[in-house]
Amino acid sequence: MTNSLDLFASALRNARTKRGLTQRALAERLNMSVRTIIEIELCRSNPKFETIVLLAQELNISLDAVAFPNTKNGTVSKSVADFFADKSEAESQRYIVLCRQAEMIKEK
Questions:
Q1: With a cut of 50, which residues of the chain have pLDDT below it?
Q2: Which of 45, 66, 99, 108 has the fewest CB atoms below 10 angstroms from its CB?
Q3: pLDDT value of residue 96
Q4: Closest CA to 56 of 79, 74, 75, 85
Q5: 1-72 maps to CATH 1.10.260.40
Q6: What is the DSSP string of 83-97?
């Protein structure tokens, strides 16, 4: 069975190459050692949570998708549920509209 760090390593490598970044370029963007990137991608490292978060943010990797790969599509992650917990329906709908608009801009 593949563990979450192995899944993250694969997601990291895929996202990095999809963006056309070398390991060195990614390391430089984040002010990290290239060795750190290499070790994580080769599953030879147990990175700090802060490192994982920085990499995930830079490459837009969903940590929920990595940590919970068997979650069915369409289910809402705890972080999303928590974010909307204190919002009214109207406020939630405004956020959804904004997200859809951002997606359309991103696709252009």
A1: 1
A2: 108
A3: 86
A4: 79
A5: yes
A6: HHTTS-HHHHHHHHH
